[in-house]
Amino acid sequence: MKPSIISIVGLSGSGKTTLLERLIRELKWRGLNVGTIKHSSHPHPMDMPGKDSWRHRKAGAERTLFVGPSSLQYVADLEGETTPKTLADTYMNGLDVVLVEGFLTEEGDKIEVVRSERSTKPICVPGKSEDGVGGLLAIMSDLDAQALGSPGVDILDLDDVEGLANFIMERFSLKGKPVGDGCGTQE
Question: Which of 67, 68, 91 is nearest to 78 (CA)?
């Protein structure tokens, strides 16, 4: 099963990570299997020089798994395309949805976070992306449509994580457990 892939984008400091934390909890509570991909345009050392896994790679290992009591880290050189779709297809099969933080310039479905303290205008353009299957789907903001320049996409309140989960589940035809009758966001 190939997961639905949604990128959460926005300026630095706009609240993407906080929104993702809340959205992950909400979608998990609704019974979905959720994965995440975090993109950074800055290099981050995954393997520390001198450590055993670094030494394995330095000796020629093409891939390394570092395994602890309750987690693992996979380290490999990136080859070819590293888009949210190729990464999800390679590493995230079997999940219902993959939420991506970043990858602003890549094609695909996006939800933009616009916080008035950082900006009053979206940085993504609504409509289909070049691949014809995605683009800006919605904006999460503390501003209204008029203040955002009437961007032509759904605008949800920045704090309405339940509404965002409903939007995602409907848009991508995701099936989870029913919500209602006294049920609500679990935080």
Answer: 91
Domain formed by 4-40+80-171, architecture: 3-Layer(aba) Sandwich (3.40)
What are the phi and psi torsion angles at 165 (to 5°)? -60, -45
Please write the tens of the pLDDT for every residue from 109-129. Answer: 999 999 999 988 888 877 655
Three-class secondary structure of residue 56 per DSSP: helix
Sketch the domain layout of the chain as residue ranges. 4-40+80-171
What pLDDT, on the 0 to 100 scale, is given for residue 50?
82
**Residue 7 CB neighbour total at 10 angstroms:** 26
Residue 171: strand, helix, or coil: helix
Contact in structure between 98 and 92 (CB atoms under 8 Å): yes
Token pair belonging to 70: 């309750």
**Which value, in Å, is the radius of gyration of the alpha carbons in the chain?**
18
